[in-house]
Each structure stands twice: as structure tokens, then as C-alpha cells.
Amino acid sequence: MTPPQFFKCLSDDTRLRCITLLQKEGKLCVCELTVALALSQPKISRHLASLRLCSLLQDSREGQWVYYQINPELPNWTTSLLKNVLATVESTKLFKDDLQRLQTMNNRPDKLICC
């Protein structure tokens, strides 16, 4: 992955919001991101596919759920950038609202059943 590819992948607000939540939470499924970002499932899925294609995310199936997480094999230079982005974005109202919606979501997959 080159720096231009990395920054192009994160240049969209929705993709940046997904990445920051995943950086904070570790792994999430589509239904959790849908609730957190208050966006439709097709829109979230499209952005997750884009992030997977540029190798920023990886997915894994656990039972009926597909979870997304930041690719642990990203180049070292991306790790510090993602940490800095998270530190900056965490203080924004938009991120706080996203995180609040996620934390108050009923029936999260790791708790019960959703979607």
C-alpha cells in the first residue's frame, strides 16, 4: 500500500468514520456500523467493500456474522497515522454521537442477536 492509496481510501467521510470506530472497538459487524453511523446497510456495505479492496480492512465470519477489523498486516507507517487520526477524531461531536449510538445499541451480535 502506498501513501496515496491509503489517503485516498480514507478521503471519504463515511469510510473515515468506519475506520475510526473499528480502531476504537477492534471489530464490528455491518449492523453495528449501520446503527452507529445512522446510515443504510447498502451504503455501509459498499464502503466496507471499498476499504477491503484497498486492504485497510479484513473480514471474518463467526457463525452468521461477518466482522470487520483493521488489517493487522498493514505497513508500520499506517499504524501511527491511524492512531493519530483516532486521537483527533475522538474529540469531534460526530464521533462521540457515532460511539454513543453504538454503545446504546440493543442486541449487539456479541451480546445477543441482531440484524
The low-confidence parts are none
Q: In total, how many beta strands?
A: 3
**Strand content of the residues, in percent?**
5-15%
Terminal Cα span: 33 Å
Helix content: 55-70%
Structural domains: how many = 1
Order of helices and strands: HHEHHEEHH
Structural class: alpha+beta
CATH architecture: Orthogonal Bundle
Shape: globular
Averaged pLDDT:
89
Write down the CATH topology: Arc Repressor Mutant, subunit A
Q: CATH superfamily, called what?
A: Winged helix-like DNA-binding domain superfamily/Winged helix DNA-binding domain
> How does the major sheet shape up?
3 strands, antiparallel
What does this molecule look like?
The protein has helices at 3-9, 13-25, 30-37, 41-53, 76-89, 93-103, and strands at 27-29, 57-62, 65-70. The protein has a single domain, classed as Arc Repressor Mutant, subunit A, CATH 1.10.10.10. It is α+β, with helices and mostly antiparallel strands and 115 residues long.
